Amino acid sequence: MTTPVTEPGMRLTVLVGESDSWHHRPVYTEIVHRAHAAGLAGASVFRGIEGFGASSVIHTQRLLSLSEDLPVAVIVVDAEEAVRAFLPRIAELTDGCPVTLDACEIVTSRGPGIRGEQG
C-alpha cells in the first residue's frame, strides 16, 4: 500500500442563496465559470436542505413556501496562491455573502503537483 501524496492547499467556500443572481445568471454558476476560466483545480456547488443567513429567515425544503431560496455552498480548491488571486475576480459576486478560506491538504494519486505536474 502506498502512502498518499499530499500537498498544502486552500479551500474557498462561498455561501449564497439559490435564487441569488448576477446579470440573469445564478451567482453559484458565475463563480464556477470564473473559477474554470481562471484555471483553478476544481469547483463544486452543493445545495443545502436547510439554513439561514443575515435575514435570520430559515429556508428549508420541507416547507414549499420557502423552498425557492435554499442555501448553496460553492467550494473551490487549489493552491493557496491561486485561490487568493481568485478572490478579486469574485468580489462583485460575493458582496454580503459569507466567504471563508481554510487551509487544507490536497491528496493526489498522480504524483507531485495539484494537477499532476512532474517536477
Overall number of strands: 8
Determine the strand fraction and express it as a percent band.
35-45%
Span of the ends, CA to CA: 23 Å
Strand order across the largest sheet: 4-7-1-8
The largest β sheet comes out as: 4 strands, antiparallel
- Unreliable segments (pLDDT under 50, ≥5 consecutive)? none
Roughly what percent helix? 10-25%
The radius of gyration is 16 Å
Q: Return the string of H and E elements.
A: EEEHEEEEHE
Shape: globular
The number of helical elements comes to 2
Structural class: alpha+beta
Q: Averaged pLDDT, please? A: 85
Explain the overall architecture.
The model has no long low-confidence stretch (mean pLDDT 85). The protein is of the alpha+beta class and 119 residues long. The protein is built from two helices and eight strands; from the N terminus they run E-E-E-H-E-E-E-E-H-E. The longest helix has 11 residues, at 27-37. The strands form three sheets. The chain has a four-stranded antiparallel sheet with strand order 4-7-1-8. A two-stranded antiparallel sheet has the order 2-3. A two-stranded antiparallel ribbon has the order 5-6.
